[in-house]
Amino acid sequence: MLEERNESQADSTLAAYAASIGDRWQRGLDPTSTAELYDTGLRLRVLPALGHIRVAKITAGMIDRTIDAWEAEHSASTIKNSIAPLVRVLDEAVRDDIISINPAKHRARRNLGRHVTHATGALRQYALPDLSTLQKLATACGKVHQSYSDHVMLAALLAARGSEVAGLRAGDVDWDNRIV
The whole model's pTM is what? Predict the structure, then answer.
């Protein structure tokens, strides 16, 4: 039975293989943020671009050309959220002995977003310089609603994504030791 499944998976397209493994590729991902973003990347970009190709026939060159096309339309973050699930699905194909190596594995190391800026650390100019500036920003946001101020402070002081802050629960905080 298992051998039959592996043989049928070996001939399946990326879309069929992804459907056959379900959410197995999402193991270990934060379901409140990362998993949802990766699932979206897989559904909206990876499967439309590569889903019709047999898993065993996907090459690094195909993946690079697909990423090149994405770079013309999407941000570096969106592209990374598309490459990551592709890597994870193809890692499952390696585990299932459908392919011997993952052709997407090193694609995530491409210099994404290079068209945005060439200066090292250029985005640093947008960083808040100190705590008092952060507090001014939080106070301004708090004029709309206190929750906005709290969100800004938590995101900045925890170095957390907005979705991670939004997913916090009271039980996630050790109030005695002031640890999230």
Answer: 0.61
